[in-house]
Amino acid sequence: MEHRDPSVFRLGAHGSRAGSSRAGPPARLTAGHPLAALPQAMARAASRSRTSVWPRTLGRMDELLKLAADAGVEVSAAEAALDDEMPQAARDAIDRADDVLAKLRDRWPSMSATERVVIGEAAGTIRRRRDAVARSVPARRVLTDAIAEVDPEQEQDPDAAT
Fold first, then answer.
1. Is-contact 119 62, C-beta < 8 A?
2. Nearest alpha-carbon partner for 115 in 31, 49, 70, 71
3. Is 103 helix (H, G, I), strand (E, B) or coil?
């Protein structure tokens, strides 16, 4: 079995902004990436545990990590929308990320200590990115402030006109 460095990943169909399906060269997770601290967090959690918790929490951990990844994808979509000068699309992506982060918060009480360490670090990084994007979204502005015009036809009953 070949040992793989967990901080190496390949960009695939969903990883590139252009949407190419061709895998790119191996890249290292940077310090700002939400999953960069994952191997260290898992090692710390395992060292704190007296018994092995991996077999029973692996399925739940997988599901929780997928939720965290979904939130990260939505934050990345918001960042891309801002880069493309589409603030409403960024707001929508932030709302979707908030929904996924809310699902993780709802599941927090039922998480084991190991899951809380791993998911807490990943979700914290995602939340900081989300907050930075939200601060960058321009505020909605009203173009004009005008008094509504009264339309006399609007006050008439449509059936009475016949």
1. no
2. 49
3. helix
The pTM of the whole model exceeds 0.70 = no
d(C-alpha 20, C-alpha 16), whole Å: 6
**How far is Cα 68 from Cα 35, in angstroms, rounded to an integer?**
9
d(CA 118, CA 113): 9
pLDDT digits (tens, 9 = 90+) for 37-86: 666 666 666 566 555 555 555 678 888 999 999 999 999 999 999 999 99
And the tokens for 89?
């699309």
Q: Which amino acid is at 158?
A: P
Which tokens hold the place of 38?
Answer: 């994952």
21's tokens: 């399906």
Tokens at 124, concatenated: 């914290």
Other beta carbons within 10 Å of 36: 18
Q: Which residues contact 155 (CB under 8 A, 6 or more apart)?
A: none
User: What residue type is 141 in one-letter code?
Assistant: R
CB 127 within 8 A of CB 101: yes
For residues 118 and 137, what is the distance between their CA atoms, to the nearest angstrom? 29
Half-sphere exposure at residue 142, Cβ-oriented, CA atoms within 13 angstroms: 3
Closest Cα to residue 112, out of 58, 36, 71? 58
Q: Name beta bridge partners: 8.
A: 28
